[in-house]
Design a protein that fits this description.
With 524 residues, the protein is an alpha/beta fold. Helices cover 33% and strands 22% of the residues. Helix 9 links the parallel strand 13 and strand 14.
């Protein structure tokens, strides 16, 4: 399959190399948008951008350096600062003004050596990893039984609290991970999977006081488990083939070890419990956690200054940071290198945008969009001068179009913007509301923000796992995505007017989860 895919990609690239510019969306009549104040999209010059992006690309080379040489880029680590410095120099080498903008981070965490082993009813090494911003096992292996309990409410924890002393605790049933080598899903299988995922969407109480109590309990739960004597928490990675998963944040530092366990092992533990046999697990975890002081972190910022409206800005962005099980290639080395490549495409095309195009590589995204939230907060006074924010953060796949983020009135605008890339299958527009990445940080300020739709290309496997490496990137897809970002940014910069502002809201506050004070005073 890999050989066939490479051959197909080579043929596609060869076809592009001989395609005339006129056949590559080289401009044409302005396209109407249906948006007040923006009569049409001027596509003049986009053929040069398409040629530069598809035939002179540097994106795969840059992605390889970022992932293979610098490696994973956990926020707060020396590697993410190295990535800041390297990307700043790359932007400058392409002729842009570039600098680093500081923001403060809640504290650092460093992953150390760890292992997890099933010791009874038989010996078996388990694929697992420590959750980020959690402690270790105190410098020694810790052994105990595995229990599975319901601790989703104060009442259910009170019933089950006696079971957790000296135990590793599972808080959920195993996920429904489908065997793709088996028969296709039946209608009943699909319904069972939907029902399972609904259990993760805990219904908040309608009463505000009850909702506040549940939120406080959720914050207190790991501390209550610690005080009840639990050794730690085990999570299901929820992926096949022993792939792991990762998350965590300095805004929610846990008081006891928490480990993500490969789905196969997590499901094994649950099956053994179902047979009345209690698994015994031994683990050793060494992490370094420093929460004494906030530490400076940086976003990399570069600009191509506008010729007519330099104070108005189009922001093109992605997050530079990553998790540290793999090398952060598809999440989000692809997006950040496509952003860098979009800057190169525009700068080396010789075209001059009317508005300033600003390229921002955010850090702290994986810990809760912290770097972009801090950036939006620091630049709040400029919000009405930001034409739009466009980001790329859905893996290695080519762009298929744009999600309108709850702005259906902009359908005609985005259809017109993407019309020149129709032959690259990048011009679909839907009204999806996409979460989980940095464009969200700008929406409360009324700034139009968008995250491009992409082909999945196995993102469910690579996302936050040890499989997130350079070899999963696809040359043609990444050339196309970089080019589409460049075309979109240039057209947005040259629109005759500003896009209408979105609904404003109170921006979320970046703050640590508040744990009940009496639990913070408790020591095991």
């Amino acid at each position: 399959m890999n050989v066939l895919r490479c051959a197909a990609a080579a043929l596609a690239c060869a076809a592009l190399l001989v395609a005339p510019l006129a056949a590559q969306g080289g401009g044409g009549a302005p396209r109407p948008t249906g948006v007040p104040g923006i009569a049409a999209v001027d596509t003049t010059g986009v053929g040069a951008l398409i040629d530069q992006g598809m035939n002179k690309s540097q994106v795969m080379k840059n992605l390889q350096y970022l992932t293979d040489v610098i490696g994973p880029r956990l926020t707060g680590s020396p590697a993410v600062r190295a990535a800041n410095d390297w990307t700043m120099k790359q932007f400058q080498g392409y002729g842009l003004d570039a600098h680093l903008e500081q923001w403060n981070f809640g504290g650092t965490w460093e992953r150390g050596p760890m292992w997890l082993r099933l010791t009874a009813p038989r010996a078996h090494d388990v694929a697992a990893a420590s959750w980020a911003w959690t402690p270790g096992t105190g410098g020694k292996p810790v052994t105990g039984p595995v229990v599975r309990i319901d601790a989703s409410t104060p009442e259910s924890l009170a019933v089950n609290k006696g079971k957790v002393k000296g135990a590793w605790v599972m808080l959920r049933a195993p996920g429904l991970v489908w065997n793709n080598d088996g028969p296709p899903m039946s209608a009943a299988d699909s319904q069972r999977q939907r029902d399972f995922f609904r259990t993760f969407q805990q219904q908040a109480p309608r009463d505000s006081a009850a909702r506040a109590r549940q939120q406080q309990f959720n914050a207190d739960q790991p501390f209550l488990l610690r005080d009840a004597g639990a050794l730690g928490i085990l999570l299901d990675a929820g992926k096949e083939q022993d792939l792991l998963n990762m998350s965590g944040s300095p805004t929610r530092v846990l008081p006891l070890p928490q480990m993500v366990v490969a789905h196969e092992a997590y499901a094994l533990f649950d099956r053994l419990l179902g047979l009345g046999m209690t698994p015994q697990v031994q683990a050793s975890v060494q992490n370094t956690l420093n929460m004494k002081d906030s530490v400076p972190q940086w976003n990399t910022v570069a600009e191509i200054r506008g010729t007519e409206h330099p104070g108005q800005v189009v922001i093109v962005g992605a997050h530079l940071d990553s998790w540290d099980l793999g090398t952060g290639a598809t999440d989000n080395g692809t997006g950040s290198m496509a952003t860098l490549e979009a800057a190169r495409i525009i700068a080396q095309s010789g075209l001059k945008p009317k508005r300033t195009i600003r390229f921002v590589l955010f850090t702290g995204e994986e810990e809760g969009l912290i770097g972009s939230r801090k950036y939006a907060e620091q630049h709040a006074a400029e919000a009405d001068s930001i034409q739009a924010v466009i980001v790329l953060d859905n893996g290695a796949g080519a762009i298929t179009g744009q999600a309108l983020q709850g702005r259906p009135e902009l359908f005609g605008l985005w259809r017109a913007i993407l019309a020149p890339v129709h032959e690259f299958n990048a011009d679909t527009v839907n009204d999806a509301f996409k979460g989980g990445t940095d464009h969200l940080s700008f929406l409360p300020y009324g700034v139009p923000g968008f995250n491009f739709n992409q082909i999945t290309r196995g993102y469910n496997h690579t996302h936050h796992s040890q499989s997130d490496t350079w070899d999963k990137a696809i040359d043609w897809d990444l050339r196309q995505a970089s080019m589409v970002m460049a075309v979109s940014a240039f057209e947005l910069a040259n629109l005759p007017g500003m896009i209408p502002r979105g609904t404003r809201a109170t921006p979320p506050v970046v703050a640590a989860t508040k744990v009940s004070p009496e639990l913070l005073k408790t020591n095991r």
